[in-house]
Amino acid sequence: xxxxxxxxxxxxxxxxxxxxxxxxxxxxxxxxxxxxxxxxxxxxxxxxxxxxxxxxxxxxxxxxxxxxxxxxxxxxxxxxxxxxxxxxxxxxxxxxxxxxxxxxxxxxxxxxxxx
Length: 115
Hints:
This protein is mainly α and 115 residues long.
């Protein structure tokens, strides 16, 4: 699969340079909140060559099922597989999907890979 298709959000972030250059701004503040967007914002900041401040959106908060079990994005992917295998119902999958990621932010599993 073509990388351009997989990382379109990064390409859009790199377009910051067009806005910055068109308006001749003196500096930029970037507030990334997704692990895929951070590299795009960094590339855009490097291209415009102006002072840039990065303020992280922070990690994504984990969610909880009705019974108090903590869940996250990885739980959603696992639940989709369990649903396809017939191990859980559509209602259980919907509960996980709706509660797993209650906030914006970087997926914690991705942060752990950076260490």
